From TrEMBL:
Protein name (database record): Putative proline/betaine transporter
Domain Major facilitator superfamily (MFS) profile per the UniProt entry, residue ranges: 19-429
Subcellular location as annotated: Cell membrane
Organismal lineage: Bacteria, Bacillati, Actinomycetota, Actinomycetes, Mycobacteriales
InterPro entries (UniProt xref): MFS, MFS_dom, MFS_trans_sf
Organism of derivation: Rhodococcus opacus (Nocardia opaca)
C-alpha cells in the first residue's frame, strides 16, 4: 500500500475535540438505533411478530431476536477490524453508521405477522443481524479515532467521548419512546406508532454521517501505513500472538455489559409486566439514571488520567458489583424513590467502569492490529455479557419465579470481570503506545 498524506499532519496542532465529538455524535446515533430495538422488544415486538405463542414466550422470543444482534457483532468486528487496520479507521466509521441506519429504518417499515406471516419474524431476525454487524465495527473505530488523536496526558478523557455515546443514545431513545408512547393511546402505539422511533433513525444517521465525513484519519494509523507495518490478515496476528489479551478484554467487559443490558432492556419488561409499574414511569427512571451515567463516564476518565486506570477501575468495579446486587431487591419494593435510587446506583457503577475502559483496551494492542484486537475482545465480551443477559434474566425468572437467581448471575459476572481487569492492568503486562 502506498503512502498517504495523513502523516504530514502536525499532531500537535490537531484539535482532539473534533474527532472526539464526531465519534460521540455518531456513536450516540448508532446506539439510539440499537436501544430503540431493545425498548420495542420489551414492549411490543412479541405480540406483533410472535403472536402464535403465549405472551411470556412471545416476549422471550423478542429478547432472543435481540440477542441475534450480538451474535453478529463479533463478525462485524472481525470484518471492519480487518479493513480498519488495512485501509483506515474513518472509512469503517462511515460504513458502520450507514449499515445501522439502513437496518433500523428497515425494521420501522417491516410488515408484522398478521400481514406476511412467518416472513415477519424471519425478516426481523435478518435486520437485527444486520444491526449487530454494523455496531460490531463501530465501537473500536470510534474509540481509536478519539484516543489516537488525543494528547498522551488526556487519553482517558478523549477516549470517554465515544463511551458517552452509549448513555446518550439511550437517553435519546427513551426520550423519543416516551414522546411517542405518551402522544397516543396503547392501541395506536401497538398499531403503528411504535414504528416512528425506528423511522426517525434515517434523519439522525444523516447528521452522524456529516460529522464523520469531516474528520481526518487517525495519525497512529497513518504512521502504520507510512512505516509499512500493516498486517496482511490482522485478525490472524491477533489470534496467534495476542489471544490471551483478547480473552482478558472480553472477560473484563462481560460484567458491565451484562448489568447494562439487564438495566436497559430486561428491567423495563420485568417492572411493567411482573411488578405492574407504569411503563412511562420506568422509562423516565431509566432516562434519569442514563443522565447520571453520561456525567460519570467522563469524570471517571479524567480521574483515570490523573490517578491511573488501575485505581479508578478497581473502585468502579466494586461499586458496580454492589449496585448489581441491590438492583432487584430495591426495584421489587415498587416504591418510586427506591427504584430511581437503585437505577442511579447502577448508573454510577457503569459510568465509573465504562469511561476509562476505552484508553485501557486501546493500549493493550499495537497500532497495526489495534482495530481488530479491540473489536474482537470487546464484541466477544458483548455477546457473553449483554447479548445473552436479557434472555438469561428472563429464563431465570421463568424457572424460579424469583429475581434472586438474576441477582446471583449479575454478582458472578461482575466479580469475574473485576478479576480479568485486575490481570489486564498488572504492571508487568506490556502497554503499547497510543
Amino acid at each position: 500500500m502506498s503512502k498517504i498524506d495523513i502523516p504530514t499532519i502536525d499532531t500537535r496542532r490537531v484539535n482532539p475535540f473534533r474527532p472526539a465529538v464526531a465519534s460521540l455524535i455518531g456513536t450516540a446515533v448508532e446506539w439510539y438505533d440499537y436501544f430503540i430495538y431493545g425498548l420495542a422488544a420489551a414492549t411490543v415486538l412479541g405480540p406483533l411478530f410472535f403472536p402464535e405463542i403465549s405472551s411470556t414466550a412471545g416476549t422471550m422470543a423478542a429478547f432472543a431476536t435481540f440477542s441475534v444482534g450480538f451474535i453478529a457483532r463479533p463478525l462485524g468486528g472481525i470484518v471492519m477490524g480487518h479493513f480498519g487496520d488495512r485501509i483506515g479507521r474513518k472509512s469503517m466509521l462511515v460504513t458502520s453508521l450507514m449499515v445501522m441506519g439502513v437496518s433500523t429504518t428497515g425494521i420501522g417499515l417491516l410488515p408484522t405477522y398478521d400481514s406476511i406471516g412467518v416472513w415477519a419474524p424471519i425478516l426481523l431476525v435478518a435486520l437485527r443481524f444486520l444491526q449487530g454487524f454494523g455496531v460490531g465495527g463501530e465501537w473500536s473505530g470510534a474509540v481509536l479515532m478519539a484516543v489516537e488523536h488525543a494528547p498522551a496526558s488526556r487519553k482517558g478523557l478523549f477516549g470517554s467521548f465515544p463511551q458517552m455515546g452509549v448513555p446518550a443514545g439511550l437517553i435519546l431513545a427513551n426520550l423519543v419512546y416516551l414522546a411517542v408512547s405518551g402522544a397516543v393511546d396503547d392501541d395506536a402505539f401497538i398499531g403503528w406508532a411504535w414504528r416512528l422511533p425506528f423511522l426517525a433513525s434515517a434523519l439522525l444517521v444523516i447528521v452522524g454521517l456529516v460529522m464523520r465525513f469531516t474528520i481526518d484519519e487517525s495519525p497512529a494509523f497513518a504512521r502504520v501505513i507510512n512505516n509499512q507495518e500493516q498486517q496482511r490478515i490482522p485478525i490472524a496476528s491477533v489470534l496467534s500472538n495476542h489471544w490471551r489479551t483478547v480473552a482478558l478484554v472480553a472477560g473484563g467487559f462481560i460484567g458491565i455489559n451484562a448489568v447494562a443490558y439487564v438495566f436497559m432492556v430486561y428491567l423495563l419488561n420485568y417492572s411493567t409486566t411482573i411488578l405492574e409499574v407504569d411503563r412511562n414511569l420506568m422509562l423516565a427512571f431509566s432516562m434519569i439514571a442514563s443522565i447520571l451515567w453520561l456525567v460519570v463516564t467522563p469524570l471517571s476518565s479524567v480521574l483515570s488520567d490523573r490517578y491511573g486506570n488501575r485505581r479508578v477501575l478497581a473502585v468502579g468495579s466494586v461499586v458496580l458489583c454492589v449496585s448489581a446486587i441491590s438492583l432487584f431487591p430495591l426495584v421489587n419494593s415498587t416504591k418510586p424513590a427506591l427504584i430511581v435510587g437503585a437505577t442511579m446506583f447502577v448508573a454510577l457503577g457503569m459510568g465509573a467502569v465504562y469511561g476509562p475502559m476505552a484508553a485501557l483496551f486501546s493500549s493493550t494492542f499495537p497500532a497495526a492490529i489495534r482495530y481488530s484486537g479491540t473489536s474482537v475482545g470487546y464484541q466477544v465480551g458483548s455477546v457473553l455479557g449483554g447479548g445473552i443477559a436479557p434472555t438469561v434474566a428472563g429464563g431465570l425468572y421463568a424457572g424460579w419465579n424469583s429475581s434472586m437467581p438474576i441477582t446471583v448471575y449479575l454478582t458472578i459476572v461482575t466479580i469475574s470481570s473485576l478479576v480479568c481487569l485486575s490481570i489486564l492492568m498488572r504492571p508487568s503486562r506490556p502497554a503499547w503506545s497510543i
